Amino acid sequence: MATIKDVAKIAGVTVTTVSRVLNDRGYISDATRKKVHDAMEELDYKPNELARSLFRKKSNIIGLIIPNVSHPFFAELSNYIEYYAYKEGYKILLCNSYQDSVKEKGYIEMLKRNQVDGIIMGSHTLETSEYINTNLPIVAIDRNLSDKIPFITCDNYHGGVLATNLLINKGCKKLAHISGPLEINTPVNKRYQAFIDVTREKNIEGIVIEAKLDTFEGYKKIVFKLFQDHPDIDGIFASSDIIAASIINVAHYLGKKITEDLKIVGYDDISTASLIVPTLTTIKQPIEYMGKLAIEILIKQMEKEQVNLENVLPINLIERMTT
């Protein structure tokens, strides 16, 4: 296997010059740079990336921790994060926490050992101190971890208001909201709070069912139980499009007609929301921009620039066939 000394010998330069070319440090003439690259190609020399990252104190790798990459929202978000990271010269190390605090802590330790340049947190199960003690640039998605860590979220309360009011305005008399996990205080819980506030203000019966992050089949079981306990539900606000899709599936199985018997509003506007039959009315989050902004904020932190700690993005109501 070729070494850096072999490259220097073929190129007719010193080992220090080869190192400077590899790490892009100091002035190197174009002619010398070409000789080094030609020698590397001739020898099929592959630089030791770990050694280079230790030398430069920069790995150009970003850690991304999410609950579950198979969940459509996190799949799309991860896709955009990877896309915009790569455009800026970074690669992504993806970690699935499955909302397991032990697993999440292990991933954080692994990312620190692997000299990542920063972490994007899309999963939140640990105490805030676990994040602060990483001494790495961090940006959080949908979680206000501390007054030192920037976070990105959307206007969840307004989204909840729009969704609940739409169902009421469409004539629904008994509503249900299937929320995400409420035990962790996140901005996403404002969707739930908006549902409670609007139904109380309009004097509409409202039922809340809390759903852990689950599979499609798991969500279907929750929906079956909801209809078993409350067969007269005529409007449901789901906290994600995947939950809304499970509602459509169960409603079809039970013979409930959408929109005559049941109206549904989802949340996220994932790419499949417009492909579901019937197409799904939903609250659109700017998922692509969330991914782009996460990379921008992380890089600014790496470069010691000032960043906004609170980044609340607008949402839109996209009305389709389920209402």
UniProtKB/TrEMBL annotation:
Q: Does the keyword Nucleotide-binding apply?
A: no
**Entries under SMART domains matching the protein:** HTH_LACI
What name has this protein been given in UniProt? Answer: Transcriptional regulator, LacI family
Q: Which CDD domains match?
A: HTH_LacI, PBP1_Qymf-like
Q: Which residues form the HTH cro/C1-type domain?
A: 3-50
Membrane spanning segments where? none
Q: Which domain of life is it from?
A: Bacteria
Spell out the Pfam families in the cross-references: LacI, Peripla_BP_3
Task: Write down the InterPro entries for this protein, in alphabetical order.
Answer: Cro/C1-type_HTH (IPR001387), HTH_LacI (IPR000843), LacI/GalR-like_sensor (IPR046335), Lambda_DNA-bd_dom_sf (IPR010982), Peripla_BP_I (IPR028082)
Cite the source lineage: Bacteria, Bacillati, Bacillota, Clostridia, Eubacteriales
Q: Name one GO molecular function term.
A: transcription cis-regulatory region binding
Q: Which controlled-vocabulary keywords does the entry list?
A: DNA-binding, Repressor, Transcription, Transcription regulation
Q: Start and end of every HTH lacI-type domain?
A: 2-56
The record, for SUPFAM superfamilies, names:
lambda repressor-like DNA-binding domains (SSF47413), Periplasmic binding protein-like I (SSF53822)
Statement: the UniProt record of this protein carries the keyword Transmembrane = no
